[in-house]
Amino acid sequence: MKILVIGVGNMGLTYAEGMSKSKLLKKKNIMVLDKSDEKLEELDQISYFDAYSELDECVPEADIIFIAVKPFHAEQLFEKIRPLVIPDQIVVSIMAGVTVDTIKNALSIDKIVRAMPNLPAKVGEGLTSYVTSEQVSKIELLTIENLLNTTGTSIRVSNENLIDASTGISGSGPAYVFYFMQSMMEAAQQMGFTRNESKVLVSQTFTGAVELFNQSDLSPNSWMKKVASKGGTTQAALDSMEDNNINELIKEAAFAAFNRAIELGKEH
Ligand SMILES: NC(=O)C1=CN([C@@H]2O[C@H](COP(=O)(O)OP(=O)(O)OC[C@H]3O[C@@H](n4cnc5c(N)ncnc54)[C@H](OP(=O)(O)O)[C@@H]3O)[C@@H](O)[C@H]2O)C=CC1
Ligand SMILES: O=C(O)[C@@H]1CCC=N1
């Protein structure tokens, strides 16, 4: 089985590396292609990839083609690969918003997987939601799932609306967590800690809280109550968040990403 990854940026490289480190593929069965010469030179140094700059040299060789370019590059890329793809190939797109029908129509092939990963895939802790077109067989589905799981875990969803929804939660979600971390680090520094100390305080607080959450069936609300003593410090912070409507604002932000994913689908 040969895999081609087109667009070797944050996510494309993450998938190429994840797949290459797994035992699913033989060495050199991962081809990568990018339009940046600089990037290709770097990739050439990584012995487990075959790096390409010309689509016609690698697209016909692939069984599965991962498309990991930005949505606004999709149309241009589709035009170039349409004459090169063959009906048996499976296209896995991780582009936000771009729908299965758009890809089917643009490439005139039927076996499409639309996936939404997230950046923690870089460290094997990713979450990828995915949906497939009917023409992807059960065996092919299993192969795809194994490939996606080389970067973490995956969930198969029943419709594309849930891919857009997961874009608003897990796809963009790491940035919301970093936003929160940034605010807490800024507060820590304003209180007198150095940047490095702030990093340790904040990072270990996140790790510890997530670990507690993962090791129990308790809701975040229940855990919040375990931290907060009546009339104490945590309650003062939680009251401030409530007064400022932070809960609603976070939900509003997640919906903004969800809605933007839907919009992207209409634009591309
Ligand atoms: N970053 C994230 O956390 C997530 C991203 N995604 C999706 O993944 C996709 C990629 O995002 P990300 O990895 O962040 O983007 P990057 O910009 O890091 O990577 C995209 C790469 O594709 C290259 N490229 C663009 N057009 C072509 C082309 N025609 N042929 C070959 N290579 C091309 C770009 O080159 P150049 O830089 O020169 O344009 C760049 O190297 C997006 O569609 C995004 O929606 C999904 C989930 C999470
Ligand atoms: O911001 C974006 O559009 C992409 C999709 C999810 C994360 N990054």
TrEMBL record:
Binding positions (NADP(+)): I6, G7, V8, G9, N10, M11, A68, V69, K70, P71
Q: GO terms for CC? A: cytoplasm
Task: Enumerate the Pfam families for this protein.
Answer: F420_oxidored, P5CR_dimer
Q: What is its EC number?
A: 1.5.1.2
Main localization is: cytoplasm
Q: Which SUPFAM superfamilies match?
A: 6-phosphogluconate dehydrogenase C-terminal domain-like, NAD(P)-binding Rossmann-fold domains
**Can you say where in the cell this protein is located?**
Cytoplasm
What's its catalytic activity?
Answer: L-proline + NADP(+) = (S)-1-pyrroline-5-carboxylate + NADPH + 2 H(+); L-proline + NAD(+) = (S)-1-pyrroline-5-carboxylate + NADH + 2 H(+)
Report the InterPro entries cross-referenced here: 6-PGluconate_DH-like_C_sf, NAD(P)-bd_dom_sf, P5C_Rdtase_cat_N, P5CR_dimer, Pyrroline-COOH_reductase
What keywords sit in the KW lines? Amino-acid biosynthesis, Cytoplasm, NADP, Oxidoreductase, Proline biosynthesis
Q: Which GO terms describe its biological process?
A: L-proline biosynthetic process
State which pathway it belongs to.
Amino-acid biosynthesis; L-proline biosynthesis; L-proline from L-glutamate 5-semialdehyde: step 1/1
For the Pyrroline-5-carboxylate reductase catalytic N-terminal domain, which residue ranges apply? Answer: 2-97
GO molecular function: any one?
Answer: pyrroline-5-carboxylate reductase activity
Q: Which residues form the Pyrroline-5-carboxylate reductase dimerisation domain?
A: 160-264
Q: Which PANTHER family match?
A: PYRROLINE-5-CARBOXYLATE REDUCTASE, PYRROLINE-5-CARBOXYLATE REDUCTASE 3
Q: Which family does it belong to?
A: Belongs to the pyrroline-5-carboxylate reductase family.
Relate the protein's function as given in its record: Catalyzes the reduction of 1-pyrroline-5-carboxylate (PCA) to L-proline.
Task: Please report the name of this protein according to its UniProt entry.
Answer: Pyrroline-5-carboxylate reductase
Q: Which organism is it from?
A: Aquimarina algicola
Gene that encodes it: proC
